[in-house]
Amino acid sequence: MEPRFVLEVTARPSDIDELDHVSNLVYVRWIQEVAVAHSAAVGWDVNQYRKFGAIFLVRRHEIDYIAPVMLDQTVRLETWIESWKAASCVRRTELFRGHDGQLIARGSTTWAFVGFADGRPQRIPEQIHRNLGAWASGQAKSQA
Predict the structure, then answer these.
(1) E-state strands within 26-137
(2) Contact at 8 Å (CB) between 98 and 75?
(3) Which of 76, 102, 113, 138 has the most CB atoms within 10 Å of its CB?
(4) Where are the alpha helices (DSSP H) in 3-89?
(5) Burial grade of 35 (CB within 10 A; 0-12, 13-18, 19 or more)
């Protein structure tokens, strides 16, 4: 199994939909937030990408919703890079409810690496492969 980056979040009032549970849109936001946090944790925040001249953008999200999350419940987000291509990668994410550890959702996101100037795909540098792929579980800092 690939090493996983872990982030914790808590369902806020603004996350709750008309069915009194966390909106499906929030799951998408959380999946993006954990990916961005993972990248920043290994030295690739948005400023570093700007200096480099390219950044990852979402090409595709697939999410399986398994169980609901309610207001004030904590969710543990776990993410890792499943596969790499020249100018894209597939990142997997699993979401677990904090109080009982139940898997609540799983996602697969295809990220394209594109230039800021022209929006065209660019080859992912080896340094990014090493930084994101070598994440050791347990190094992550939980955030709420």
Answers:
(1) 54-65, 74-84, 88-97, 103-115
(2) yes
(3) 113
(4) 24-41, 46-52
(5) buried
Q: Is 65 exposed, middle or buried (0-12, 13-18, 19+ CB in 10 A)?
A: middle
2-11 tens-digit pLDDT: 689 999 999 9
Domains and CATH numbers, the chain: 5-133 (3.10.129.10)
The contacts of residue 29 (CB under 8 Å, 6+ apart) are: none
Residue with tokens 């190094």: 139
Gyration radius of the chain's alpha carbons: 15
Model confidence over 4-52: pLDDT tens digits?
999 999 999 999 999 999 999 999 999 999 999 999 999 999 999 999 9
The dihedral built from the CA positions of residue 3, 97, 41 and 120, taken in this order, carries a sign that is: positive
Whole-structure pTM value: 0.89
Tokens, residue 17: 């939909």
pLDDT (average), residues 75-79 = 97
